C-alpha cells in the first residue's frame, strides 16, 4: 500500500472534488467498483465476471471487506478509510487477495482517490496482478535455491583449494619459481571468487573500495587468469583510474573472456583510455544491434557453452561504480565496450 500524500493544488473545501458518473470508463478491462463511504459495494463493472467469476450484481450491497482475504482486511480497509476521511486529495494503492466465486483468492491491486462521484461514491480501480505475484514467488524460490547452491559449491571448492595450496607450499620449498607464483596467484584468485560468489548469492555486498588503480598492470594480471590460446591483448592506458581493484578485475576478466569465447582463436583485444573512462574492443564478429539491449541480462547468451553471467557481472560492476556502459562497433567490425563517467587519479 502506498499513500502518494497531499497535493496542495488539489486541496479544496470539497465543492470541486466530485466527478460525474459519465466520466467513469465503466467498460474498462479493469474491475471498476463504486463504494459508499462505509465501504459497501454499490456497483461493479462487468469485468468482475472475468476476474473473479461473479455475476455483475452478486456483490452489490455487500461490504467490501467480505471480498478480502482475512489476512488482508485490516490493511485494505485502512487505506479506504484514509481516502474517505482525508480533507486533501490523496491516492491510495494496495495489493491484496480478492475472493473468487469458487472460494479461492486472486491477487489484485486496487487504486482509489479521495474524489467521490456526484452520488458520494468512491471509484475503485482494480487490476489482476496474479501473474506478477507468481513471478515474484518464483524469483524468491530461485534466490533460495541459488543461496543453497552457492553454499554447497563454496564448501565443496574450499576443501580441494586448501589441499592444492598445501601441496603448492610443499612444492615451492625454499626456492619458489615463476610458475609457483602464478599458481599461487590463481589459487588466491579462486578463494576470492568463492567468497564473492557466496556473498552475492546471499544478497550481501562487499562495498566498493575506491583507490587509484594501475589499469595496465591490472590488465596483465587479468590476462593471465584468462585461457587465451592464441589471442592477444594490447593495452594503451597511462593514467591511474579511481576504481575498486577487485571489481575492476571481474569486469576486465569477463570482457576478455567474452571476446575470446565469441571470437576466433587469434582474436586481438585492445584496452585503452577515453576522456572519461576506458574501452575494451576486439576484431571479432561483433554484436548485432538487436542483441545489444539484452546481453547484460543474467542468463542471456548466444554461445552454446556460455552461462550468460559474464556480462551481467560487468553491468553490476559498472552500476556499483556509478559508471555507464555502451556497446558499439570497433573499427575492425568487432565488439567495442565503452565505460564512461569514470574518474582518473591525478
UniProtKB/TrEMBL annotation:
Transmembrane segments: none
Kinase found in the keyword field: yes
Single annotated GO MF: phosphorelay sensor kinase activity
Reaction(s) catalysed by this chain's protein: ATP + protein L-histidine = ADP + protein N-phospho-L-histidine
Histidine kinase domain mapped to chain residues: 152-340
Entry keyword annotation includes Cell cycle: no
Protein known as: histidine kinase
Species this chain originates from: Halogranum gelatinilyticum
